[in-house]
Batch of 3 targets.
Target 1
Amino acid sequence: MTNVYMYVVDRDFGFAPNPFHGLCTLATCKPVTRRVAKVGDWVVGMGGGRLKATGKCVFAMKVSQLETFDSYWTNPIYKDKKPLRNGSKKMIVGDNIYWKEDGEWRQVNSHHSFPDGSPNPHNIKNDTQTDAVLISDYFFYFGAGAVQIPKHILTGMGYVNGRHHRKFSIQQACSLVEFLERGFESNILHGDPYDFDSANARYSAENNKVTA
């Protein structure tokens, strides 16, 4: 059975999800969602209070493939997803940051590292509790151009913003998916990420804080 997982996007740097280079990927954060989502499922990110986007869709991705961190790291198809901290904004926020070496998780200099570029063990522990990367070659990414979802659609589903993801069957969420598919072009960026101007920032799960 196809499921739809919906959650509130608190921050939108273009890192989680990462909608660049022709694929939308969710490789960090949301370990529970990454653990349960299967190929064919949808993952939908809704706006919240911080983004002043309650009731708006930030992104929606249909999972087309699952990768482990190691396969994501080593596959040349995903090389452009590896971050370059001295590159363009979309290269800075690359989410291909983990691999195993000698049985230990390694973390490349990235949005989830400490400000000096050294590995952040708090993020490593949180991200790698689920060894799964969600890959989508069919997605809608709106970012700061987030689109208002008609109230009757969300009410009909029984969706309200809250902590953690909400799970719906495709039958329950069909009106939402149809609204996106009929109204918007897929696999393009309809807007830059909300927090794209802060692409150089670092995030730590230790205190849920972003630092410059």
Target 2
Amino acid sequence: MIVYYFTSAEYGIENLRNRRLKVSDFSNVNDPFELLGIELQDKGVRKTVNFEKSQISKRYGLLCFSEDKYNPVQWAHYADNHKGVCLGFDIPEKKLKKVKYVAERLARETLDQPDCNEKLLTTKFNHWSYEQERRLIVDLNSNQINGDGLRFESFSDEMVLKEVYIGCKSELKFADISSAYKSGNNSVITKVTRPSFRDFRIVWDQSKKSERT
């Protein structure tokens, strides 16, 4: 399935040039409730859940994608206020975890369920639902750490770049994209975006056509 990764112009070009995405650390994501979706009033439950969080964070990182490339809030929050880019990747659906958005935290009995860790990995407060998030969970042991202590996941047969959308406020040009990334068979399409005339969405600006690289 095609899923979308929003980022700034600077990092977008860097990602394209190096053919990789930065793996996020669970302890540094923007949601303080990450991996803490269970109700924690009981001290014992709190201790257990925090232990599970620490174990998951030590072993796994994540790449966050969205099912929706049109949401202007996504562009504002994650693509530098529409000055960045949105990268569309074809990833097998079975490799992606669909985030479930809930109004209330999960019951403490969740700890006794065999899919407890799965629920910890995929449960978020429903105010985040606009993200329509799909997660690619990455085993940290499979990634090399660079000099800055960062890990990256390389583009591959199971994470294939298909689309590049340039933000409606971006200064990037088609030439910037094609100079940073060449597919070899013109399989990646680049489009410029604009606000829709009809509704509150970001859409392809067809007046600027598209280019392949």
Target 3
Amino acid sequence: MPLLRALVRTARMIRHTGPLADGLTPDDEILLDAPDDRLAPALVAAGAGDPGPAAKVLAHTREAAEWENRDRYVQRLAAFAAARPEWFTAWQRTTPHDPDLLLVKAELAVTRAFASPARAELLRDVTPLVLAAADADPGDPVPWRIALDHARGTNAPHTAFEDVWAQAVRRSPHHYGCHVSALQYLSAAWYGSHAECFDFAERAAQDALPGSLLQALPVRAALAYLTGGAPRGVPRARLDAAADLAVELSATYAGSDPWPAEVRNLLICVLVELERWPDALAQLRLVGPYATSFPWDRLVDDPLARFLELRGQVRLEVAAALPLLGGPGGSGAHYA
């Protein structure tokens, strides 16, 4: 009987896997961490040594209070400055007190410190940079997201973390980046527990505005739990509820929309961990060409290769569960 079941499973895979590729972006069109239409020209100009477009993009986000875009752009520009510093050096020479420059400078310094074995010591040395970024624009929550990362890296006690958190939410109570940073601090991998992490994520999701990415915080908590190597303790129902909420959030955005791409990538990862193969395939169709380094770079060295490999794995698992003479490979109903 085990041999017969294996043969039937293989036959199902052979029959159905090909048709299940319908709606999936071809492998050679998948993009890793693709910038949006505003950031892309700024990165091209920076690559040519011109910081002007990057400065203008960040200035616009500050003036329009586009805090989520501002946070994303700062992180991407800091990563680019780490790899290609010439344009950033030129920017520092021309306008050293620019609040947008100071923000990228603080992000770059904190990110570099996190990559060092002497993380805590280096982070303490860059404290003035974080404070300078916060002082440059008192209404901006993004420096406080950086300050939350800084608190985590310097082994700050809960009381100090809560002080920084209060400053962050005072400026933007629903800022996704600040919530993600706080969630990391409260995770079992750092200074909290899985229970604290889930409680914080679920409260924030419950209070979130419709369509807010904060509704994906519980699925981030689920990802930390499922990939953290911890003893099992969180009920399966709580994990499924987190995934269900993120599925609902994903459905509010159009397919192939780059804005929720990272949320969809982490949702796919959680759905695979939970072996919810049809749901994972549906999200793979919705994410379109937008693969993101997170969460795959937490698991493997080559995130794009893992993303592409996983797409094939999901199709095989869905195909193996379909009736041999039905489904997309036969005359039965098409799997959606």
